[in-house]
Hints:
By secondary structure, the protein is α+β, with helices and mostly antiparallel strands. It is built from one helix and six strands, in the order H-E-E-E-E-E-E. Strands 1-2-3-6-5-4 form a six-stranded antiparallel sheet, with no helix packed on it. The model has no long low-confidence stretch (mean pLDDT 81).
Amino acid sequence: MQTTEPMGESATPAVPPLSATASRARRRALIAIAAMGGLLVALWFGDALAGLLPTAPYAPTTRTAGNLRVTLALSPAQPRAGAPFAAQLAIADASHQPVPAATVTYAWEMVSMDMGTATGHADPVTAAPGHYAARVTAAM
């Protein structure tokens, strides 16, 4: 015996609609995925803009090394990665007299991440005894 399908009806069974509970669960899952994606985009955007915001300039800093007082000043006060900047050092002894004949070497490195170390020598400033200058380029 042969059965025939009436014209206009499909051979595939109809998909039953989702229950209200399943529909709500699917909606919650999609909202959670969208929220996580939005959070990731916001974090990326905030990180991308962080380099545009001004940071506090470096103030001249004085430290004691043995019986010497060393003051470091940077110019510009907000160095940019990859751009050269000037470092000025003033070295004085315990009685605050300038130390004119020092050999000054430096090692410049990033504290937050390892980008290598820039090393070199600071040259004496002829017009100011006890003052030394170096041109440094911070790696990035």
